[in-house]
TrEMBL record:
Cofactor: pyridoxal 5'-phosphate
KW Glycosyltransferase (keyword) present: yes
Native organism: Streptomyces levis
Domain DUF3417: 27-134
EC numbers, comma separated: 2.4.1.1
Catalytic activity: [(1->4)-alpha-D-glucosyl](n) + phosphate = [(1->4)-alpha-D-glucosyl](n-1) + alpha-D-glucose 1-phosphate
Function according to Swiss-Prot or TrEMBL: Phosphorylase is an important allosteric enzyme in carbohydrate metabolism. Enzymes from different sources differ in their regulatory mechanisms and in their natural substrates. However, all known phosphorylases share catalytic and structural properties.
PANTHER family: GLYCOGEN PHOSPHORYLASE
PROSITE patterns from the UniProt entry: PHOSPHORYLASE
The protein's name: glycogen phosphorylase
Family membership noted in the UniProt record: Belongs to the glycogen phosphorylase family.
Keyword hit for Hydrolase: no
Amino acid sequence: MKPCVIQQRAEVEPVKAIRRFTVRPVLPDPLRPLSDLARNLRWSWHTETRDLFQAVDPERWAASGGDPVRLLGGVPPARLAELSEDRRFLRRLAAVAGDLNDYMTGDRWYQAQSEDLPAAVAYFSPEFGITAALPQYSGGLGILAGDHLKAASDLGVPLIGVGLLYRHGYFRQTLSRDGWQQEHYPVLDPNELPVAQLEEPDGTPAQVALALPGGKQLHARIWLAQVGRVPLLMLDSDVEENDLGERGVTDRLYGGGSEHRLLQEMLLGIGGVRAVRTYCRLTGHPAPEVFHTNEGHAGFLGLERIAELCAEGLDFDSALEAVRAGTVFTTHTPVPAGIDRFDRELVARHFGPDAELPRIDVDRVLRLGMETYPGGEPNLFNMAVMGLRLAQRANGVSLLHGSVSREMFSGLWPGFDPDEVPITSVTNGVHAPTWVAPEVFRLGARQIGVQRAEDALTVGGSERWDSVADIPDQDIWDLRRVLREQLVEEVRKRLRTSWRQRGAGTAELGWIDGVLDPDVLTIGFARRVPSYKRLTLMLRDRDRLMELLLHPERPVQIVVAGKAHPADDGGKRLVQELVRFADDPRVRHRIVFLPDYGMGMAQKLYPGCDIWLNNPLRPLEACGTSGMKAALNGCLNLSVLDGWWDEWFQPDFGWAIPTADGAGTDPDHRDDIEAAALYDLLEQRVTPRFYERGQSGLPDRWIEMVRHTLSTLGPKVLAGRMVREYVERLYAPAALAHRTMDPDAARDLAEWKERVRAAWPGVTVDHVETSASEALAELGTTLGLRVRVGLGELGPDDVDVQVVSGRVDEEDRIGDATIVPLKPVGSAEQDGQWVYEGPLSLDRTGPFGYTVRILPAHRLLASSAELGLVAGPSEELVAAGGLLMR
């Protein structure tokens, strides 16, 4: 007998693959439409499509996170064969596929408008939040861009989205045992995402390339995500043709140093235009007439378009005018620190003969972005400044933010009051079909029908929302409780996962079953965590907060989420401070912090909250759309009057937190005052309103506020309303200007601007007189005004001479001005001067003043402030009198 040998298995490290493939299932012919449905991201906001995928395999649908591509990759062949013979399922599949076909090919709002609208609009953004299944977003800017694309699709606007495909996306957030934020960057395989490679006719991947210093090149392939009717092109530098450094250019969103960011933004802007040209060539899509730059990151797109026109024979200045005519720039930041700025030498190294755009003089490139205005940093290249100089039309993202932006960028238009700076505003909106809970939609559909409810969420129109008044109180209250109960379940699930990641064992987590209560007033607070958003303002007086959380009759519970930027240790300390408070066994059933805030969490969080809290430092919130998403689900806002809330707040549907933002206010003292005001509102106004019951046994006053939120705010906060405003106020005028600005017109305008700038030192206001004999006049009097001006080398066709009048303050500054043009009388006098005359109406009582100014005038200017040139009376002339009536 052989001796018995006991063999022990050696511990072996898992074998690592040298190459990775994504193996896709072969769908039976009857199920082929499932592939088309999965590849069009309309499923992310279309309930019937999601319900269909859930029916394929409910367990795998849940495990896939609601991602159809992952779902279909994991369904066993036996289940697919079973479905291919299931007549009921196939009928549903045919109906949903037919609905998508109608959606993609039928006329929508845009097609019913005038023929003057642009044939196509290219919309550039560094990030797009379409769905959690395509994690290419970090926060508000990306979610807004995604909602813009989805609303454009619903309205039939022929948009082409342009962005980058990041192999790590934005970071995933977990917490350490002591509550410190930890970042993780999972690798994303595009083959496992709902995207497809754009291919040339021979089947090879379509690519674009940028020239780099030293004779190198940056190559990028083009991925296509279909967002309903809107194609989204995303550039990916992780291709074999690149060296290791260049492969990493699109590694992660908002990562890396200055050169890394500069290369990302060159690829987005310059490479993005080339990708659009490639896409239009391959598909026959109409070429964009309008280019929309969503924040300054994509500003280089204007340089590429200038280079295109220069290659066709235009000089730089003429090409600049042609490009400006069809460009829209949207700024999203209310603070200079939020803008990307690069050292001029770094920018200079990447342009010119040895790098990109070799036929454009580097000094011309630099001049577009340099901060050559009082208070600017003359050695820094500012992406937002370049965006404004390359766009004839610009806007902020709320009424207040428009005002803040005009003040912030006023140095680009010297001599003009901030109110006249040519930056308008289009208040952001949110894509209701994405953010409205299915239960809320079903209640509306039951009231007015499915089609009218869908129209109310996409196109808008207050008449469709007025029917909320007819929904019974009991139905509204029952809905709110259902949504709150769903949030409680979601919070417990996520909290258990988070504590396990922090190292807790199952035996330690029994308390989580008692976290939150579906009958307690629930407050939500979720956003990025820069210091100005004040995540921890609620902790200012911890004893008072505890009393609110643990009140025996009127308790509150709070759900908090948010990510700090990986490089922001100050933000991470705020997260840790909040987490440590929420870990306290005395209150952990009433306040929770949920890590890894993203779209999936947000879609559960907004509907389940009764109050959405927002307490930024005013006016540092450009818009703040999270409260809009909450409002669409019947959640009331409790917010500082900043961003959109400053514009639309009414006591009928929410509360305003008073601010202590006076000049010289100590920051700590200001936070104390505003936190105390927050506690007062919760104690005295909010909780009593939620818990008091009327004769019906329901909180009828609270329900009435919910009703006002839906009927009044509903139509305003829609991305459909926002996109319609962009079309009517910005895209249509830009398209008209683009068509008008043919090469001859562009040359004429460029030559005229050069002539005007050269001649402007000779433009003067030399004498002003009125028909008034004394400085006292009656209301309603109209005076005659006679002005003598010097125009130097210019003529009356080159200028507007205006009288500006209105009430004046103690320093004789004119407010709420009325502007009236004056007309030339006769021809030039012997000394080259011109006489202008016109009326001056004294239409307001009290201190009243006027002045006279001269502005450049040309039919192709979008604004009289465009050149930043203005001439007015000299100080001597003002001192001589005649310019002020009291």
